[in-house]
Amino acid sequence: MANDAVYVRLDNREYTVAFEKDTVTVDGKPVPGELLPTKHKSCLKARIQDQIFDLPLELTDEGARFLFSGREYVVQFEDQRQRLLRSFGGQSEERRTALSIKAPMPGLVVKIETKVGDVVTRGQGVMVVEAMKMENEVRAPSGGTVKEIRVREKQTVEKGEVLVVIE
Amino acid sequence: MFRKVLIANRGEIAIRIMRACREMGIRSVAVYSEADRTALHPQMADEAHLIGPPPATESYLSFERLLDAAKKSGAEAIHPGYGFLAENANFAQAVNDAGFVFVGPPAQAMRAMGSKTEARRLMKSANVPIIPGMEETLASSSEAKKVAARIGYPVLLKAALGGGGKGMRIVEKEQDIERAFDAATREAQGAFSDGSIYLEKFLQGPRHIEFQVLADEHGHVIHLGERECSIQRRHQKIIEETPSIALTAELRREMGAAAVRAAKACGYVNAGTVECMLDSNGSFYFLEMNTRLQVEHPVTEMVTGIDLVKWQLRIAAGEKLTLQQEQIIPRGHAIEARLYAEDVAAGFLPSTGTIHYLRMPAGPGIREDSGVAEGNEVSRYYDPLMSKLIAWGENRGEAINRLARALREYRISGVRTTIPFCLFVIEHPNFQSGDFDTRLVDTRLHREFLELPASSEMEQAVAAALALSIKQNGSFWPREAKSQGSSMRESGWKWTGRRDTLSETRK
Q1: Does residue B214 sit in the same domain as residue B311?
Q2: Active-site positions of B?
Q3: Residue B497: band (very low, low, confident or very high) from pLDDT cuts 50, 70, 90
Q4: Looking at beta carbons, which pairs linking B92-96 to residues 24 or more positions away fall under 8 Å?
């Protein structure tokens, strides 16, 4: 049974889900249910115990995301094999210290407010990116030293493009 | 009345105007850019004309292309909606010069009110209170420094031709003013093709209250009550309601009368909005007049039962405004939530993408003015406002409960939206008690929202459903999706991948 388990992480809470014949258990507790047919290509429909609901899922780099009952959730999963692999090789990855600041949306770099070697604090503005006629300040998600600046002023950037690397 | 009207706009407001046209038996003409070929608004019109490439300057902002489309279609009038050219007096003039009726105020009223500095001069003369500051524009950042020192920090730098928070900066201290001046100038230049900036005293903790007015060309002016628009992020409104919890009947009469004076002072015709700041002592100041239909006009329509867009069209056609002030009797309470395609966690940054799935709420007391449909793309080219959800209730409590219910019913994927944030705001104790001002979102609610603990409601069930899908389909996706999904990736589920900018700012 344990070999079949998958780990589902919703926001920051992890659930261990296992399958026994027709029953699903979540953290050891049986929660009978079934998937319901849906023609929709990005919406999952299910009955779990006495509740029926739809989950409009959207793939992201991190896993998936969905809006449900007015709340947004981030979901990720891992099976036994993936978890094992991560326990062997994942450590160095986990401790990586360089942090990339990515463009949160496509736009135009209006102004770069930092240079290589600068020490920035968490929340400090590093550049201004204009999108949809508004100037948006891109801020450092944590403190560090600016190691690389990968864009120039007046350059168009795509969503997810690395702008600055801090260490 | 007109037989055919061209709508020089896109998205939800274009559709809103088309609906009024259809109800009045007027044929509507949509214009669309290449980025909007499959958008909803061209589809909702009686006819649609392609006007150019995606950048607004080559399509929705091009006088020439809009007027060409108007000529081709045989429209008699042009409705500008809001945004784009709605407050551009030169456009209104060009429309008239080309022989069309502009559905909006006369160009000279727009010029007077469009220049924030001239508007301040006019209001002063009409005995409408104004915020201490300048009636001229700034020549340089050093002049800004001088004026700010005279009236005292904090000050607000504003685009003389501004609106919608563009080209606006609060400056708390002298060392920030140069940078703020540069940024505001750049933004104003980009948004309004005019980088002129002026400065006024920044009021701490005001409420933003505005009055809807209607005026005909025969000199009759009425107001339709106020809208409370204090719930803003980065100077952009996100929740609006009417009536305001902060106004007494007496203050409402006084402010309403001032709004009518303001409209008369500039020779206003058509629908307009007089925006005011209300400080904690109950003193109010004229902020600006928006010489167009407002995004939040539906809340006024819900409580008064009056269709503002239809009156805009009738007034533009030269008809008399037959409504009298004493006939305006608001009933109940209405609240609007603006649904933007935005990433709230990243600081309300635009979120672009294709809407894969969409199920909109409905039911008693709910009105949705939406501009998108499933399969539509929310592009980087235009404003990220997708839709407006409006709830009416017999009283404020019922309106809040209905709006919350509707927000919970919403299902959408493909873009991130302000839906969760709007729900958080209207359920917040400060919103519910009415104890808020324009600072609430930026100083408290945004942070509190990001720190919101994960909800355990339904989580186990959701986890089970997701696991079932993984088990049966090999991924979260339904089986049907996998077989046809070209853009669906099946691997790449990473724990470590979460460490990007967004998740970091969440902590």
Answers
A1: yes
A2: 292
A3: very low
A4: B94/B63, B94/B67, B95/B67, B95/B70
